[in-house]
C-alpha cells in the first residue's frame, strides 16, 4: 500500500499537522489499495481535528497558571501570523491602560510547550485561519481566549471550554484576556470543562473518520 499526501503550494501549519498525524495513523492500518489524501479541501478538510498524542501526556494533571497570585507578571502567547499583528498591538495598548504586568509573546514556531504561558490567545481575523493551535492549548490545560470563528466555536464547545470573542474587536478581546488572567473562577471552570472534552482531539477519533472516508 502506498500513501500519497498532496499539500497546497504553501500549506498552513494546520494542514501540515493533519498530514503528519494521518501518515502516522495510516502506517498502522492495513488497506487494500493505494491512498491519496488532498489537504486543504473537502473531504479531507472536513475530518475531525486531532492533536498529536504527545500533548495528552500529563493533560489530566495540568493546573491553572495561578491567576489569583499577586505580584507576578502574566505571560500570554499566540502563534504569529502577520494578519493578527495589528489586532495584537491594538489590544496590548488597551491592556496597558490598566495593567503593566502582562507580556504578550508572538511565537514564530508551532509551540512545543505551553507551560510558560498563563493563557493562550487566538485572535484570528479570518474564518479560514485554522493556525491558532487552540486544540493543543486546551489539551495542555491552558485557558484559551479565541476569536469566534467556526473552528474555534467547535474547539471551545461554543464557549464552555474557553472564552470566545468577536473577530477584530480589541475591546472585547481585552476584557476576555483580563478575565482569563485575573478572575480564577472564569479560567478554572473552563479548564475543568475542557478536561472532560479533550478526548475529541485524540488521533483515534480522526482515524475512525479517516477509515470511513477511505472505504466510502
How would you sum up this structure, described in words?
With 216 residues, the protein is of the alpha/beta class. The protein has two domains: 3-53 and 202-214, no CATH class; 59-198, Glycogen Phosphorylase B (Rossmann fold, 3-Layer(aba) Sandwich). The chain has helices at residues 13-26, 85-98, 134-139, 150-155, 170-182, 184-195, 203-214; strands at residues 3-6, 35-38, 74-79, 102-107, 119-122, 144-147, 163-165. The strands form two sheets. A five-stranded parallel sheet has the order 4-3-5-6-7. A two-stranded parallel ribbon has the order 1-2. β5, α3 (134-139) and β6 (144-147) form a beta-alpha-beta unit. α1 (13-26) crosses α7 and α2 packs across α5. The model is unreliable at 64-68 (pLDDT under 50).
Using brief descriptors, characterize the structure shown.
two-stranded parallel sheet, 2 domains, alpha/beta, 7 helices, five-stranded parallel β-sheet, 7 strands, Rossmann fold, 216 residues
Biggest sheet descriptor: 5 strands, parallel
DSSP strand content: 5-15%
Structural class: alpha/beta
Integer tally of domains: 2
Give helix % range. 25-40%
CATH superfamily of the largest domain: Glycogen Phosphorylase B
Instruction: Work out the radius of gyration.
Output: 18 Å
Low-confidence region ranges: 64-68
What is the approximate shape? Answer: elongated
Distance between the termini: 17 Å
Quickly give the CATH architecture of the largest domain.
Answer: 3-Layer(aba) Sandwich
Average pLDDT, all residues: 93
CATH class of the largest domain: Alpha Beta
- The spatial strand order of the largest sheet comes to 4-3-5-6-7
How many strand units?
Answer: 7
SSE arrangement, N to C: EHEEHEEHEHEHHH
Determine the CATH topology of the largest domain. Answer: Rossmann fold
**Count of DSSP-assigned helices:** 7
Amino acid at each position: 500500500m502506498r500513501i500519497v499526501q498532496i499539500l497546497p503550494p504553501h500549506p498552513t501549519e494546520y494542514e501540515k499537522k493533519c498530514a503528519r498525524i494521518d501518515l502516522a495513523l495510516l502506517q498502522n492500518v492495513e488497506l487494500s489499495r493505494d491512498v491519496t489524501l488532498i489537504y486543504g479541501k473537502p473531504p479531507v478538510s472536513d475530518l475531525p481535528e486531532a492533536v498529536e498524542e504527545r500533548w495528552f501526556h500529563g493533560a489530566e494533571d495540568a493546573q491553572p497558571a495561578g491567576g489569583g497570585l499577586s505580584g507576578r507578571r502574566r505571560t500570554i502567547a499566540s502563534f504569529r501570523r502577520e494578519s493578527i499583528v495589528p489586532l495584537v498591538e491594538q489590544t496590548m495598548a488597551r491592556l496597558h491602560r490598566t495593567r503593566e504586568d502582562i507580556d504578550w509573546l508572538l511565537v514564530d514556531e508551532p509551540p512545543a510547550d505551553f507551560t510558560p504561558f498563563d493563557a493562550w490567545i487566538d485572535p484570528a481575523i479570518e474564518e479560514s485561519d485554522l493556525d491558532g493551535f487552540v486544540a493543543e492549548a486546551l489539551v495542555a490545560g491552558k485557558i484559551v481566549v479565541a476569536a469566534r470563528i467556526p473552528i474555534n466555536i467547535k474547539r471551545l464547545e461554543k464557549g464552555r471550554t474557553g472564552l470566545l470573542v468577536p473577530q477584530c474587536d480589541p475591546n472585547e478581546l481585552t476584557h476576555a484576556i483580563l478575565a482569563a488572567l485575573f478572575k480564577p473562577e472564569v479560567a478554572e471552570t473552563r479548564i475543568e470543562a475542557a478536561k472532560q472534552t479533550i478526548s475529541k482531539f485524540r488521533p483515534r477519533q480522526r482515524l475512525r473518520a479517516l477509515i470511513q472516508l477511505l472505504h466510502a
